[in-house]
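Appendix B. Chain record.
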Amino acid sequence: MTDYKAIAESNNFIILDKYTKYSQVNESYQSESDLEREFITDLKNQGYEYIPGLNNPENMLTNVRRQLQTLNKVQFSEDEWQRFVEQYLDKPSDNSIDKTRKIHDDFIYDFVFDDGHIQNIYLLDKKNIARNKVQVIKQFEQTGTQANRYDVTVLVNGLPLVQIELKKRGVAIREAFNQVHRYSKESLNTDNSLFKYLQLFVISNGTDSRYFANTTQRNKNSFDFTMNWAKSDNGLIKDLKDFTATFFQKQTLLNVLLHYSVFDDSDTLLAMRPYQIAATERILWKINSAYQAKNWSTSDSGGYIWHTTG
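Structure tokens predicted for this chain:
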């Protein structure tokens, strides 16, 4: 009997082949505050650090400093930190496009410390994503042309990268989308706002949950560009409880943010849809398996993806 050995295998696809939905999902009346409380509890159970009381820009910047010092194994003096913020992290001239470019392209900054030595300061670790600290906060207050209070925010290394807006069950999910759109106009992009780093929005009314990229392109920020999460067979994962258990798994969310979002040549941020991610994951797996098997020049080392989209 031939003893076959695995050449390459993966159980780390973020688009799942199988997922068993929660057998008891709360479909009865649930207030927005109850939905928010349960959502944060579920995130905590998945390893997110919840920071109560972090609800203003000063506290957020303090937390960013703490997380970046840990990630980069450095200690900034007060003067050094002030220079880092003014010259790179939160330059006064930066807009949301500049901040998105820092996430995707310019996430390493050569910083000169007071003693003259130069060190690369990383905003994110894209090679070992488990090193990135994921935290959750709620009811952050910020004022622009209007004062707003945001429902739930996910921080990565202290930076607000995902904003979640919730509506109680039974309310049209489009209301959450309209609220996010209003925040973008009124306060998210105000001067010295770290929320210019936002990459993704998530909206949910409990029974329907969707995500979409933070983009300024008018033809890309309509409700039609919101997306449900899904399994590899395109079975939709809509209820917030199930959406949290899958999309908000730390490894999954970090991969969507850091590997499966595209900042294109027209400065438009695009979040990949589940079937696009599934195809990409399997392409990468096929390349790796062919490489491991040293099987580079045969038909077995290739394949094709059939997608009938624009």
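Further analysis of this model is presented in Appendix C.
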